[in-house]
Amino acid sequence: HPLTGAGPDLYVWFYPKFVSIPPGWLAPHAHSLMLQILSGSGLIGFGAGLGLFIAGAVRLWRRWRSGSNRVLTAALISAFAGLSVHHLFDYLFGTPNFVFLFVVVGALAFASAEDRDSQPRHYSAALLAPLLAVVAGFGVFSLRGAALNDRGLQLAAKYKWGEAAAVFQQAANADSGLTLYWQAAAQAFTRAGEVSTAIPLWERAARDQPYWAAPLAALAILQDDPAVMQQAVSLASESSLMALNAGALFESAGEATDARTTYARALTLNPASARALFWQQTPLRAGVLAEWQ
Fold first, then answer.
1. Which are the contacts of 193, defined by CB distance < 8 A and separation ≥ 6?
2. Residue 242 near residue 232, CB atoms below 8 Å
């Protein structure tokens, strides 16, 4: 939908259809504000965002030319420029603390300098305390889960899967709305051999993000369930790795027709894989390769 986009913040639902299947990297957002807006709101949303950007730049330039409070204006211009450059390559609007800071900076940038200078107001520190407490609370809430997740990644990098799984689960409990933490815990428990513990976590990840193929694929393999694997393949129809794993599961389950179809799909999506020894390991695979060539 180039005009209207797929819907706000639905990038993470649809992008994994093409990539982000393990061991590929999972991209929770577009890592570009422009691409994020285009994917969610299309050209209409991008035009609105561009208009807001231009309006902010013009307002700040006029304030600078007027010579009013140049120190504050220079700080706002620096913040505006830094945000703009950074968001060419990242997307931080999913972080509550950043959104709060963006609103504050935007309000200062668009506020009337004359009104603010002519009617100075003084506020009691007691009135600011609740607001600061809310901001600090958001920070602690967000950073605690992120810190635990980072610790889990460090343990996983050392192949300490049991310890990593426990830490990932703490991160998931600390920020239960972030599916990525549940998926990381499920992956770590699986690698640690604790499959019975991992399966409920994979199931939760699949429920929370029904457009992610990886949790369904993991459940299909762990439970030898070809029907669930079909769902995963439909969600990641452009992933050669998903098709390859699906074919292997179908083959082991004795479903030769489905195995041939998905193997052929994997070869079509990634022709270079035809040189792999994988295709010579069973008569069915060799036959699929011969027919595909």
1. none
2. yes
CA distances, 199 to each of 55, 79, 174, 205 (Å) = 51, 45, 20, 10
Which two tokens mark 13?
Answer: 């639902």
CA–CA separation, 155 and 173 (whole Å) = 18
Q: For residue range 90-141, list pLDDT tens digits in order.
A: 888 877 678 878 888 888 777 765 545 555 566 566 666 776 777 677 667 6
Q: E-assigned strands of the chain?
A: none
Give the torsion through C-alpha atoms of 136, 137, 140, 142, to 10 deg. -110
Nearest to 14 by CA among 35, 32, 40, 49: 40
The answer for residues whose C-beta is within 8 angstroms of residue 261's C-beta and 6 or more apart is none
pTM of the model: 0.62
CA atoms of 222 and 190, how far apart (whole Å): 9
pLDDT in tens, 166-203: 999 999 998 888 888 899 999 999 999 999 999 999 99
- Residue 217 neighbours by CB distance under 10 Å: 27
Q: How far apart are CA 92 and CA 99, in angstroms?
A: 8
Which residues, 6 or more positions from 30, have their beta carbon under 8 angstroms from its beta carbon? Answer: 11, 15, 36, 39, 91
How far is Cα 288 from Cα 279, in angstroms, rounded to an integer?
A: 8
